[in-house]
Design brief:
Layout: H1 3-7, H2 20-37, H3 43-61, E1 67-73, H4 79-87, E2 105-108, H5 116-122, E3 129-131, E4 147-151, H6 160-170, E5 175-180, H7 188-193, E6 205-209, H8 219-233, E7 241-243, H9 253-265, H10 268-288, H11 299-313, H12 315-334, H13 337-345, H14 349-352, H15 365-368, H16 380-397, H17 406-413, H18 420-430, H19 440-471, E8 481-482, E9 485-486, H20 487-559
Parallel strand pairs: 1-4, 1-5, 2-3, 5-6, 6-7
Antiparallel strand pairs: 2-4, 8-9
Helix pairs in contact: 2-3, 2-10, 2-20, 3-10, 10-20, 11-16, 11-20, 12-13, 12-20, 16-17, 16-20, 17-20, 18-20, 19-20
Length: 561
């Protein structure tokens, strides 16, 4: 038994009083438990708790000045005779045929008006309600004012509706007086199906051996001892056990005194509800367990989820496109001006994925509403890896949870799986890939390329002009010499060679810078993808774990007295 269950002390309260405020606090804790687990645990497991909250709220809202006591027993036990003897009126039919009592009869000590709402809730028909109030009684019945005594149908009736009615009423009354007779006091039906189930309601349970006059006086103690042994076996140690006989007023004194004490204490309803809370808490205990869970998946599991999400989002394809786009743009900015136009005719790799193009612009916003990017869909292997990663998160988070919770954790982890593709796509489209700005060194190298190209063009033009003048028979230009080489030739060849040299020196720098940009883009994309994973996978799991912690705390509070 867990620590929580251990705090539900199954002791006989006896004369202990139940504090109404403490009971209400325990009921509120059960209500908080139900709120915490709403939608997470099977409804079938929560029916007793819902029933308790509803019944307790209604019972406490109704009259606290009345105590509802039910006489329950098998056919022939004489409970209707006891009912009539206590009322000193012939109110409930008595006979030997089965079933003797087919409907519930109620006798109210004191004005009926104050008890009507309570009897309406219990379900006793108005024509079966009686008042034990007579001017001839003087003050004889004052000690029982506030008592509502019920004569229930026989629980072993051949009509199933009678037993269902008994079971319903046993869940509503404040106290139960079980009536057995010398012939059937050991019957397994009453012990296995009823008395044993009331072991957490011992303080509102009373057992009477009726028709004790049918036994020889010497046999009564022996039968009472045997019945006490059976009650102890049923977990009803300490429950009052009386011998009664309806035909002799002296045989009713003990029972009447017990009822008077119950009415005077005004504790039966509170004790009954306290026992109901004990029963519900014990039933719910296995749903929360005794150990506190670790609190969620570890870093290794989360990192595995992020890697799977990155693969499904197409991060490798995007980072590869980022590297190629950087090299493409760097070549267009630092390459030889003569061939730059050819490079610009080639599409930018990022534009193919509907990611920021050469100018940093996005695709058409209206189009982005339908498809944020054109990143390739994840492969079957990537989808499988993502499913396994999500399952690993759920398994790790639920490793210390009771059996009822792993399913809820798994459902939470997968609850937004259908929204993940669009969320990942939007995240990829909205991530700054680090290509918005043109590095300064691009401008410097590009300017140098323009200078050497201009020199080559000037040299070429100079040479062409000289050849043209000579072809026309005009005086040739006087070409300055650089050493033994004419200046135009130096400008042409020097510009060409310098352009090639700058391109050759720039190419490894571009490749190195492209790899850095790719690594930075991968880091940013992975961080953004991790945020999606946190929102769409981890956050729902944390909500379930938080609900579990709230449910556990609430049930612990409900178990306190």
């Amino acid at each position: 038994m867990s620590n929580i269950a251990g705090r539900v002390r199954e002791v006989f309260r006896g004369d202990q009083r139940v504090d109404a405020d403490a009971l209400i606090a325990r009921l509120d804790a059960v209500r908080r438990f139900l709120t915490a687990v709403d939608g997470l645990l099977p409804d079938a497991d929560l029916v007793p708790a819902h029933t308790l909250v509803e019944r307790a709220g209604t019972r406490l809202a109704l009259s606290r000045d009345h105590t509802v006591v039910a006489l329950a027993g098998a056919t022939g036990s004489g409970k209707s005779s006891l009912f009539n003897a206590l009322a000193q009126l012939e109110l409930s039919p008595v006979g030997v045929r089965r079933p003797t009592t087919g409907v519930t009869h109620a006798c109210v000590w004191g004005p009926l008006e104050g008890a009507n709402h309570l009897l309406d809730w219990i379900g006793v028909l108005p024509r079966h309600r009686f008042v034990r109030e007579s001017a001839l009684d003087a003050d004889d019945e004052t000690a029982l004012h506030g008592l509502i005594l019920l004569d229930l149908p026989d629980f072993d009736s051949v009509q199933r509706s009678h037993r269902l009615e008994v079971d319903r009423l046993l869940g509503l009354v404040d106290q139960v007086v079980w009536v057995v007779d010398p012939q059937k006091y050991a019957d397994r039906v009453i012990h296995d199906s009823y008395l044993r189930e009331f072991h957490r309601h011992r303080d509102v349970t009373l057992v009477v051996l009726n028709q004790a006059d049918r036994l020889p006086p010497a046999e009564v103690p022996r039968v009472m001892d045997d019945l006490r042994r059976l009650l102890d076996t049923d977990g009803l140690t300490g429950v009052p056990l009386l011998a009664t006989t309806a035909i002799d007023p002296a045989g009713m004194v003990g029972l009447r005194n017990a009822l008077e004490r119950t009415v005077a204490e005004r504790q039966a309803a509170l004790r009954r509800l306290a026992g109901d809370v004990d029963t519900v808490v014990a039933g719910l205990d296995e749903l929360v367990g005794s150990t506190r869970p670790a609190g969620g998946p570890d870093d290794t599991t989360i990192n595995g989820l992020n890697r799977a999400l990155a693969g499904a989002a197409g991060v490798p394809a995007v980072t590869e496109a980022v590297e190629r786009a950087y090299r493409h743009r760097a070549g267009a900015a630092t390459g030889w001006p003569v061939v730059r136009g050819w490079r610009r005719l080639r599409p930018d790799p990022l534009r193919r994925l509907h990611l920021p193009g050469p100018t940093g612009d996005q695709a058409d916003p209206a189009e982005s509403l339908l498809a944020a990017t054109s990143v390739p869909d994840p492969t079957a292997a990537q989808r499988s890896a993502l499913g396994l990663a999500i399952r690993a998160v759920a398994d790790r988070a639920a490793v210390d949870l009771p059996a009822a919770w792993p399913g809820a954790v798994t459902s939470a982890a997968r609850s937004r799986l259908g929204d993940l593709p669009d969320a990942l796509d939007r995240t990829i489209a909205g991530t700054d890939l680090g290509l918005d700005r043109r590095p300064l060194w691009w401008r410097i190298v590009g300017g140098a390329q323009w200078l050497v190209t201009l020199a080559a063009v000037v040299g070429l033009g100079w040479l062409v002009l000289g050849y043209a003048l000579r072809a026309l028979g005009l005086p040739a230009l006087d070409n300055p010499m650089v050493g033994q080489v004419p200046l135009p030739t130096v400008l042409l060849l020097g510009g060409l060679l310098a352009g090639l040299l700058v391109a050759a020196l720039t190419r490894p720098v571009v490749r190195w810078a492209a790899r850095r940009v790719r690594a930075r883009a991968e880091q940013r994309l992975t961080a953004r993808v991790a945020q999606v994973g946190d929102e769409y996978v981890l956050a729902p799991v944390r909500i379930v774990l938080g609900s579990y912690a709230q449910a556990r705390d609430a049930l612990r509070d409900a178990a306190r007295r």
